[in-house]
Every structure is written in C-alpha cells, then in structure tokens.
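Worked example

This section walks through a single chain of length 689. The input is the sequence exactly as stored; nothing has been trimmed or padded.
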Amino acid sequence: MNPEFRVLVLEDNPGDLRLLREMVADAGEMRFRLSAVTRLMEALEVLDGEPYDLILADLNVPDSNGLDTFQSLHERAPDTPVILVTGNTDESTALAAVAHGAQDYLVKDGLDARALTRAMMYAVERNRVEQERRHLVAILEATTDVVWTISPDGQIRFLNQAGHATLGLRPGASIDQVNLMDHFAAWAARLVREEAIPSAIRDGVWLGETALLGPDSVEIPVSQIIIAHRSSSGRLLFLSTIARDIRERKKAEERLARLAHFDALTGLPNRDLFRDRLTQAMQRARRHDRLLALLFIDLDNFKDVNDTLGHSAGDQLLKEIGRRLEHCLRSQDSVARLGGDEFTVLIEDLASIEQLQVVLDKLLHELSVGVPLGGTEVFVTASIGATLYPIGDADTEALLKQADAAMYQAKSNGRNNYQFYSHELQIRIAQRLALANDLRRAVERGELMLEYQPQVDVVTGSVTCVEALVRWNHPRDGLISPAVFIPIAEQTGQIGAIGDWVLRAACRQCGQWRAAGLPKSRISVNVSARQFRLTNMVQVVRSALADARLEANALELEITEGLMMENLNAAEGVLRELKEMGVTLAVDDFGTGYSSLAYLKHLPLHCLKIDRSFVRDLPQDADSAAIARSILAMAHHLNLSVVAEGVETQEQYDFLVDEGCDAVQGFLFARPLSPSAVEELLRKGSVLR
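Given that input, the structure is written out below as tokens.
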C-alpha cells in the first residue's frame, strides 16, 4: 500500500481551495490527506502540533502577504517542502521565495491536476533526498575519520569537520581554494596522484596507507580508501575518500615489533633479530672481503648472584652487562641477548685477528669491573667463544655452533678467558656429541658397571660403608671415566636414568652381600642435583629398597651442598622423609660449595664428607689443616659424623685421627674394587690389621 502524504493547505479563497481538493483527489496512485486553513497564524499553530510532508500556500492571506508568508512558514517548519500556489501578479514574489528555499510555485490560472500532482510528488521526493543528504552529512560530520569528496577535475566538494581539524583549517572555512595534495606528505602525494586515484578510477576502489600533514606539518599516518562513484551510464561523477588516523595502531605495531625483536629486560636485540643481523653481516663480509667475528659470551657463576642477592639483583646485573658490552663496541657492531646470561656480539669490518684480540681483552676487562648491587659490589667474569668468517665454508648455523663450542672451551679452561674456534676443538665437540648419543643406550645395553670404595672406621678398622662408583665400559673406547660422561649426562638430561640404575644396582649388590652373611655395612650412592630435582626421590628410593629386599638403614645417600641450596625448603622436606624411612644422609665434597651453617642446622643430616682438595696437602699446609679442623669441630658440635675423602698417605691419616675424624676413604686403604674384591675385604673384618 502506498504511503499517505499529509498536506497542509493555506488558502483563504473557497473556490481555489475546492479546486485544489478536487485535483488532489484525482492524484491517481498517490494518496494525499489535506488539512486546510485560511490564515497564516492558523497554519503556524497547526505546524506546531503535527508534522506535515508538504505545504501548499497562497502568498496572500488575510493576516500576511508576499514573501513574509513563505518566510514565516519556512521558519516554523524548515524541513517541510513548500509549494506556492499564486496568481499571475504574484509570480515575481514566488520566484523570490524559491530563491529563499521554496520547493516550487504554481500559477492558479494554468493549474491542472497533473501539474499539481507532479509538483507535489517532486517536492516530496526532493525533500526526502535532501533529508537523507542532511542525515548523511550529519553522520560524516560526527565521525572522527577525515572524509572528503572531489569532482572528476580534482576540485574538493566536501570536507567534514574532522578533516578541517586534521588539516589545520578553521572550522567552517571555505574549501574552494584548498588543494588536497598540499596536505599530504610528499611521498604520500605521489602515491595518491600516481597510483591511488588512477586505481580507484580503473577498479572502482583503492585501499592503502598514506600520510596527511597536520597543522604542525607532522606526518599523520592514515589508512585511506578512495571510491569512484559513477552514474548508471558509467560516467564518473565524483571520488570520495575516508582517511583514518592510525597513529595509535602504528605505535602498537612498533611495540609488538619491539617485543618480537628486542629483549624486554636489556633492550638489546633478541635471538631472532640477531640471526637476521648475522645473515646480513655475513653477506657484507663476503661482498667486501672483510673479516667478521662472532662472539658468544656467557657470564661465569651468574647463578650465584640470583641465589644470594635475588633475581631482581640478577636482572640489574644483566642490564649493566648489556650496557657495558654496547659501550665497548663501535656503532657498526651489534650486541644481542640470547637469553639467561648469554650474550652475542657481531664485530664487522675487521682488519686482522690482532684487532679482534684487542676488543676481546677490552671486553674481559670491562666485564670484570665490580657492579654495585643492593648495597654491595658484585664481581663477575665471562667466558667468551670467538669464531671468524669467512675463514672456512661455514653457514649461519655452523658459525653459531662454532662460537658456542669455543665458549664452552673457555669455560673448560678455567673461565674468565676467551677461546678461538679451531679444528681441534671441532673434533672434541664431535667426540662429545658421539659420546652423548652412545650414552643414551648405555643403560639398556648393559654397558654401565659399578665399582666400590670402602669407608673405614678409624677406631675399629672395619668397613662401615661402601661407596658405589659408576663406570662406563664403552664397546669401542673401553672404560670411560665418570669425570667425562657424568657432566654429559647432566647436560643432556640422562642423569635421571643413569642415577636410577646406579641406585638399584647398588642396593641389589648390598642385598646380595647381606644375604651371603657378610658383615653388615651400608651402601653409599651419590645423588646429582638434577636427579634429585627431576625425580620423586622418596618413591625412587623406596622402590629400589623394596626390589633389593634391603632395609632402609643399609642405604646412604650422598648429596651436594649446591643441591640443597637450590631450593632449601623443598630439599628439607624430601630429606626428612628419607631420614624417617631410616636412610642415612651425607653431604659430599663438603666445603667446596656454599658451606652455610644455616642449612647444616636445619637439614636432617648424619654425616659430612671432607672434600679431597682439603685433605691433599695435609698436614703440611696450614690453611688445609685449619679448614679440616674447623669442619671437624663444626660437624661434631652439630652431632654429625665426618668422613675424609682422598686419604692417600699415612701422614694424612694420622692427622685426621688425631683431630677426631670418624672415618676415612682413599687409596691408602683401597682403590675402587670389584664386587668380589669387596666381599673379600668384608670377610677380612678389619682393614687396619
């Protein structure tokens, strides 16, 4: 059903009013509802109470005439179209009214139904279009995006208020003389002129990023869309564009890019960005036939700082180290933090290895200078591995492995030094890798074996405990020292499986000795920090004892000081459970780690083992003697027994006995023995006889 249009008629002549009614009634499919008044004041009152779609008005009524009539109606209902119905004598006045906003005018003498209907329909439709236009303009004015339209010849036709503000134009200022290209950054103006507008005209739309110039000529990055509007025949009518300020988005993208490529703590490039820079640096070195040095830097004993001063102090130290590294290098060189306490350095355009050595010496010196942290001065050193390019045919990955290998060699050489990658080092690294692969299958192939070294009571001379020592009988290389393969097992995570095997095998052997009726002695097993941390130690011990049908008091576990200090609270809980089971607990290599009275006082320990480094120079060395006496006095004060390791001479033994040591272990009594040799020793009864 067609909509009904409400028409207000202002006409004081009854005949003319009747004629208008008849013509409207003959309007065909259009449905108009007329309301008629004879005076202007009546019309104004009606317009106050009800909206109308159209006003038909005679300019001359009893209470108003001429242009004043139209202006009064227009002021009262500015959004309602007005068609003037007037006589020949008022045609000039009607024309003036149209100039002031009237939709149209009709002369009464030539008026017919079709002309009236067309005029009314046109007025209503035109008013609807105008209303939509105003609504659209209101929307465009309300948006914060910059919106404008331009004619095919490039003249700007519309610019919203956001556009005025962004371009630095006064609100409401005329845009007739504005050249939009002057308000783009130079590069963006070229892009819009040469690519964006031609693409929009050709394809209908163009979308991309440009940049406008603000009032202070600062570039404002914008996301811009340009649309070509055409008539039904395809003729280009105008171009419209919307430009959205993307400064905040750009900042967010920059923040994300920084997070993706830079270390959050030090602000240095991270691993990903470093690899990109390394690849580019290698290309430049090849192109210009110059040397490039890659350095791997690892701080020595950084973990001690975190453990003693806390991670906040450790973070401050890392930031200071990063700052010092940058300070030591040239602007064309690059520093990155790979993670933890590992840094890398790229030194480009080297003339010689001697030049690199100067830089390395400077780095070692700068890094060794004390760093004030938390009211104290902390001293750290660094181990540096260096490799050169293009010496050899290394790619990016090979170069990284070379520098890493050289850094580990520097650590092996005592730390606080630098080492250059070499072919010999490559061979050692390859051998170590092969051993690590073979070690993964050593347990399942039955290649591991145990030897045992007795601990001797100094009073009775009897063997009170036997320490289990793991050996690797490699099918190709023969016996491999634990000093070689245990560190590999620690680093590769295989220590858990090996430690479990050692514990179970030692418990089984002890059970067999006891089942054979031999004098009872404990079996002692070393537990690594990684094994203690990664396994349920209480459950593992309980299972091993059950499998061997061995009482808990037959087992002694040797743990290190570092293991306990990694997490004192967690270690204390596990050790108390083990002690409650009846397991004996000893601290191995005492004096070489933290040597803190605090953990000795709190942890449920039974025994301390004096490290062989303090026994070696007894009794001649006064410092070693003083340390040994102190350990013995402290341990006995805490009701702990003491075992001295590495006793090889009678003089060492005599000194320890005189100072009250409880038991000794070393080559003076026995080297590591096979199970059968231990059996003979146990049958003998006293080792000292």
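What to look for: The first helix runs from residue 14 to 25.
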